[in-house]
């Protein structure tokens, strides 16, 4: 089947955005902390992780010119990175609680996990709205969202460690 499309589909673009944003934040964090790792084996795992994430990001960034209307958007400070890292933690917490609830047989534990899931959802919302209000997560502007991804991933790849 031949597909003549000028750009990636919206759903695959958004999935790719999630992967790039998550991995760029992870790469940034690994590079900022690798020098603090004293255990040689763990440091080797960090270095392997850094190389793997750099390779993943480079491969994914090649698709960015094929996303709908990508353009460069610059932001000099790292506040967005720290907020994005926190958002990723909250998003992972929501997913983890939801999965844990489906595996829980004990009613009292299910009740506690459900309460904590609701708190995690509120936490995620607080962080998301913080980021949205400051244009760190322009979720309704795909062009800026993808440009942020591209810039953050490129900065993470180029960051020395």
UniProtKB/TrEMBL annotation:
Its main location: other. Keywords: Capsid protein, Sporulation, Virion. It is found in: Spore coat. Pfam families: Coat_F (PF07875). InterPro entries: Ferritin-like, Spore_coat_CotF-like. One of its GO terms (biological process) is sporulation resulting in formation of a cellular spore. Belongs to the CotF family. This is Spore coat protein. The lineage of its organism: Bacteria, Bacillati, Bacillota, Bacilli, Bacillales.
């Amino acid at each position: 089947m031949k597909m003549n499309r000028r750009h990636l589909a919206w759903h695959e673009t958004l999935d790719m955005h999630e992967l790039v944003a998550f991995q760029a934040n992870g790469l940034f964090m690994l590079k900022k902390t690798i020098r603090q790792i004293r255990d040689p084996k763990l440091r080797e795992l960090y270095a392997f992780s850094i190389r793997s994430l750099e390779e993943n990001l480079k491969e994914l960034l090649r698709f960015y010119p094929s996303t709908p209307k990508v353009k460069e958007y610059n932001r000099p400070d790292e506040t967005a990175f720290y907020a994005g890292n926190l958002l990723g933690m909250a998003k992972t917490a929501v997913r983890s609680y939801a999965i844990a609830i489906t595996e829980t047989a004990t009613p009292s534990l299910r009740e506690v996990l459900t309460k904590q899931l609701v708190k995690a959802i509120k936490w995620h919302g607080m962080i998301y709205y913080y980021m949205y209000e400051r244009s760190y997560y322009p979720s309704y502007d795909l062009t800026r969202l993808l440009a942020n991804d591209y810039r953050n991933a490129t900065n993470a790849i180029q960051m020395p460690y």
